[in-house]
Structure formats: structure tokens, C-alpha cells
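Lab notebook page, bench 4
Experiment: in silico fold of construct C2
Operator: M.H.
Input chain length: 225 residues
Purpose: comparison with the prior construct
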Amino acid sequence: MTAQHDGRPVTVMVVDDHPMWRDAVARDLAEAGFDVVATAGDGPQAVRRAKAAGPDVLVLDLNLPGLPGVEVCKEVLADRPELRVLVLSASGEHADVLEAVKSGATGYLLKSASTGELLDAVRRTASGDPVFTPGLAGLVLGEYRRLAGEPAPTADQPAAPQLTERETEVLRLVAKGLSYKQIAERLVISHRTVQNHVQNTLGKLQLHNRVELVRYAIERGLDDA
């Protein structure tokens, strides 16, 4: 099945400092119908090539020479906030997972995952779904809740914009940790419609990614509604 994004093949860039692993992942993705537009073997190279190639999804290792993966994530997303980042790492350490998510990664998959799990994760990441190796999703949701409990900045802020009833409904389900597919099934709407509601909400609230969106929702108690 060819992976599609806006009617075209999903473009992917693979970053890993081990050439054999990097080439194997790129080959598996290409054979599955993804358009592998670039690869990189170190942090600085990854930043340059990601900005030049503009992939839909960046499959990113954390342990990179020259610049750590989390810093690559921050730099690339600062330039292209719409990019989706799927971390593919050998580390299952909680600190690494949380640091990656705080840096803007959409998902986190361990290298012990099967080829099928990787392909599914890249497809879902391209659609904006958060994808985590089983056991890590609860950790990330717990971190969202912890962040929501921290004091908010005291600087003068404009009144929050009005969300539609449907946007609020989608936001509530995002805060509960549901994937876009699950939200679509729950509300009996299309996956694309869920994506559109999320993008509209991000724009209205002047937020940049799902991490900030979930924090916003939890701060307002929408996860308990």
C-alpha cells in the first residue's frame, strides 16, 4: 500500500549514524511506497538536509555525532513547524522519551520494533497521530499532566479565542490521549476532518504542536470533562 499525503507519496528522511541500519530503514520505507528524499549520518548534516529536502516525516535517531537528535528536532521544527518527527531509538529510557517529546517529536519507537510496526508508525506519524512503543504512551500522557500543573506565565495575554463546539469536542478527546483514528471513529467523522479541526485549533490558539495542545486542554480540565 502506497503511503499518501495530500494525494502524493509521503516524503521521508532517515537520520542515523550507522550506515547499514540507515540504509536498511530507507530501503524498507521505499519498498513500502514512501518517497525517501534524503538521509543523514550526523546532527549538523541532518539539519541542513532536512531544511533543504522538506520531508513530511523525519525518522530520527537520538544518538548522533555533532549534534544530539533532540537538538536536531528543535532546530528543524523551528524552521518547519509542520514537520512530523518520529524518533527511532535503541533507548527506552524515560528521560530520553520525555526529552524527545518536549523537543517536538510526534512519536517515539524503539529499534526493536518490527518492519511492519515501523511502516505503520511512519504512516500514522505523517497523519499527525502520536505513535509510541507500547508502555511509553502512558508515560508521555503523565508528563503532559505534570506540565499542565506548572504555573502559567504571568505576562499579559489576549483572551483565548472561541473554538467551535466540534473543535472543543475534538480537543477534549486529544487531551484524553486518543489517536486521530480513534477520534474519527468516536465522532463518526473522517480522519481528514479530525486533522482539519486540530490544525484550525492550533492556529486559533497560536500553538505549534500536539504537546502544546494537550497541555492547553489539560490546563482547562478538558481531559476530565
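Observations: The first strand starts at residue 4 and ends at 5. The chain has two domains: 4-140, 165-224.
Next step: discuss at group meeting.
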